[in-house]
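$ fold --in a.seq
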Amino acid sequence: MIKLPFDKLDYIALSWFFVTWFGYQTFAAWRAKRGHPSLMSIMSGYRAEWWQRVLERDQRIVDAAILSNLSNAATFFASTTLLILGGLLALLGTSERVIAVVAELPFTTRSQDTIWEYKVLLLIAIFVYAFFKFTWSLRQHIFNSVMVGAAPAHDTDPEKLADYVARAGRIASFAADNFNYGLRAYYFGLAALTWFLNAWIFMCVTTWVVFILYRREFRSEALKTLERRNTVRKKAVGPQAERRSEDQADPG
């Protein structure tokens, strides 16, 4: 059995890191499914509306441009992640010099070379995870592009159109979710950097990252603005529906 050269505080900090990361990810998905407004759930509704508009348009140049922009974003982050991984791998070969530099920073706890390498390996694992998420998001955007080209005609059976919109919207949401998971890995990767200073700062910054993610996902002004549009639409649709029902009920 391999014995890791960590002390008790390092084990606690590392456990706290993974529990908060994957715990928050599970919590955010659960909260969105329970009907609580979140950026993920609100944007999922917008994607469904977008696909309804796709089927209404004869010329889908705008939709192709949107998908191209989404694919470019995923490609950019995937390429950047590869550069980061290359830098981290190079860092493994220069541990002594980097340790000497980091040791001069305030609040830094002196670490053994072996512990330092494990910390670098943690960062490598985080960004490998991010790379797979970004590339899977990119592939799903490509799937969506194919679905734009294969979209049925306007005169297709309404049930088939609704089914196509639902499936295309789900693929778009899968792509967005994986892109979001990759971005979260970047946030937590920045938190993991502070482990090079000491375990206490590592735990504090990890907690701070979760707080920032929660605020942006469930309490941000962007969410309130996006949600307000849905509320306004419901209010606009409501009186129209009432007037139509009154007209149908009035025989005169």
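$ fold --in b.seq
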Amino acid sequence: MIIFSKKEKAGNQRRIFHKDTVRQAFWRALPIMGSYLFVSMSYGLLMQEAGWKWGWSLLVSMTVYTGAFQFVLITFLSSGASLLTIALTALFMNSRQFFYGLSFVEEFRQMGKRYPYMVHTMTDETYAANCALQMQQEQRAKESDQKMGQNEKKAVPEEDEKNIAKSLENIRKRDDMFWIALFSRISWMLGAVAGGVIGQSIPVELTGIDFCMTALFVTIFVDQWRSAKSHIPALLGLGCGVVLLLLVGPDYFLLPTLILVSGILLLIRGTMNSAVGAGSGEEAVEHE
């Protein structure tokens, strides 16, 4: 374990706000910021159309910050849905973050006071960016070890020096993670406010703009379909959704569908895992 002196810790704190650190993180976050800005503007416009001014869009974006669920929340707020329905829907829609967020819990804990903020701002996009940073760090470490192994004449660095270098690399990576999360969240909030202000100040024809929520979910569905090893959850969700839509109507079908699909997936989890494992084994044999 590396123990930094007070002077070294102060230097690390200053590096967080170093212009090179901020600039590098900004360019990494730029693709996320671009997509967030336009999607959140649509969200702000829809909130304004539903009677909630830009201040509410900002408040929801600061406290909820779940992207897709914020669009669903507009319908809930307009229809007077119960807090239980809202809470359970939010839980089911964002439950995936419980699982992939576990891979960064220890990393975030090492960030000290920034730990709660990093947990709050974890999204699909920032998770992907964090994974990319992690892979780049591992690749650099691998290349460094290979170079050291190829050149036997060079003296091997002492263990403490290697540990210090690794610790500094981790600090730089965590700084990048923090700024990427911050820039991404700011862009979402700015877009939400801009959408609300535009909808309030300029007459905008909003007919059809609510389709952006449908398009967003279709895009997520297609992406998950292409990347998933098993299509059973997707087909199960479609089937249960259609059946309950016909049985209870469009105002009440969402929550029962989420509960039913989750229950069935828990029951058949073992069977699904076996099927996915068998499929992976057959692919490996074919490649050989």
